[in-house]
Design brief:
By secondary structure, this protein is an all-alpha fold. The protein has four helices and no strands.
């Protein structure tokens, strides 16, 4: 969760930096992504790589979409909401499959 949170801080700061033209958000974006990679690397010591990456990317997409709506007043279409729901369902399936290792 720390990897995802750090990545989302970096992503939101990148959006706020307006193409890296604003120094404060640019620095926050870099710091967020560095910490995200550090935390992600540490979690891969425990979790299988495929599951860890799917969780990181999937929850990251869902979180980024929510942040976009809340902070940046972006809109979501019905098809995007359906897509995010399918991603969430996929994460749940992958999570439940972790106990089924051969």
């Amino acid at each position: 969760m720390l990897a995802i949170t750090s990545e989302q801080v970096g992503t939101a700061a990148m959006k706020a930096s307006e193409g890296f033209t604003s120094l404060g958000p640019t620095i926050l974006a870099i710091v967020g992504y560095v910490f995200s990679l550090i935390f992600f690397g540490r979690c891969m010591r425990i979790l299988p790589m495929g599951f860890a990456y799917a969780l990181w990317v999937g929850l990251g997409m869902i979180t980024a979409s929510v942040i976009g709506v809340v902070l940046f007043k972006e809109t979501l279409s019905v098809s995007v909401v359906i897509g995010l729901a399918v991603i969430a369902a996929g994460i749940l399936v992958l999570n439940s499959a972790q106990g089924e290792s051969v």
